[in-house]
Amino acid sequence: MANKIVSLFNIQYPIIQAGMIWCSGWKLASAVSNAGGLGIIGSGSMYPEVLEEHLVKCKNATNKPFAVNLPMLYPNIDQHIELIIKHKVPIVFTSAGNPKTYTALLKSHGITVVHVVSSLKFAKKAEEAGVDALVAEGFEAGGHNGRDETTTLCLIPMVAAEVKIPIIAAGGIATGRGMLAAMILGADGVQIGTRFIASPESSAHDNFKKVVVDASEGDTLLTLKELTPVRLVKNDFFKQLEKAYEECATPEQLTQLLGRGRAKKGMFEGDLVEGELEIGQISGLVKEVKPAGEIVQEIMTEYHQAKNEQNTAKYIF
Ligand code: NDP
Ligand code: NDP
Predict the structure, then answer these.
(1) Which ligand is nearest to the CA of 60?
(2) Counting ligands in written order, which one lies closest to the CA of residue 261?
(3) Full residue range of the structural domain in which residue 220 is found
(4) pTM tops 0.85
């Protein structure tokens, strides 16, 4: 019997490229899908006309399945859903909201629905809402994150013990070894974000790609729990937040300091001082920018090597 994620999405490898605002347009999504994984267009940063342009270009660039990530906080979500249906997108990943709201509608159009969760409680709710699979994303992940700080190592086996639908592990995975570890813990596939930012096909600004490859262990931290928890690089903007916390800023003052459009400023326009830079802890392992297709191949080669090592002395005692 084939791997559940490979069968569900009709792809070659259970490697999903995360939908990342400002960083994953049609170029990255089509490159990952062409390499045998599943590419995702991150629609949270796209006005509807921009999303439509990316859908058309993605369909021209690949005849393989691809997906759209739909953050449910997005203000024009109904227009995005209309476009997804109009352009016959086969798979949608919903995040940051209640999976009950749109799952039935999307599924009535033959769309496979996956929901992103950060806890066992939300995983059960998503299963009840009828989604086809889950992304279980741990504390290590970049960008928006859960409040409970549950790590991938703890989250995956807990979800796997109580949920029947296929599980995609996310947060802290960038390599074939990480992928094998997640699958041993109970995942059926992996979602990888940070490593794919460091590719020529990502629409992230080159300055931001350099931040990813230069980052070391300890360079990111989860912050803004009073608003929406988010893991950020400790740049100048992050230090402004730290100072505000020292001065006991209220949530209103934090909202004011955050302002509007900081993610675009940092990740798309390359303002490393004032921008919001969202990457995961695993950035400490990402050392170079390379084509998305090579990243997929490298992960698969390492996965098979690591799997074969399980017969070696290290594992026998
Ligand atoms: P362009 O449309 O300018 O295209 C960039 C390059 O891609 C051009 O050299 C173009 O070649 C080529 N190209 C266009 N279509 C195809 C295709 N179907 N197959 C192969 N190559 C193609 O920019 P983008 O596509 O990168 O972005 C489109 C818009 O979306 C821009 O306004 C951009 O700012 C925005 N964007 C928004 C993002 C977000 O998260 N909000 C993320 C990424 C981009 P040629 O000129 O020869 O056609
Ligand atoms: P802000 O409120 O700071 O800014 C909104 C940004 O989204 C602007 O840069 C704006 O572009 C762009 N945008 C695209 N479409 C629209 C629209 N219809 N109305 C208003 N703005 C739009 O938000 P963030 O940048 O922090 O987040 C943007 C989106 O991404 C949200 O939907 C959020 O839920 C999601 N998100 C998801 C994350 C994840 O990990 N899944 C992480 C962070 C955010 P412009 O500047 O060109 O006007």
Answers:
(1) 1
(2) 2
(3) 207-281
(4) yes
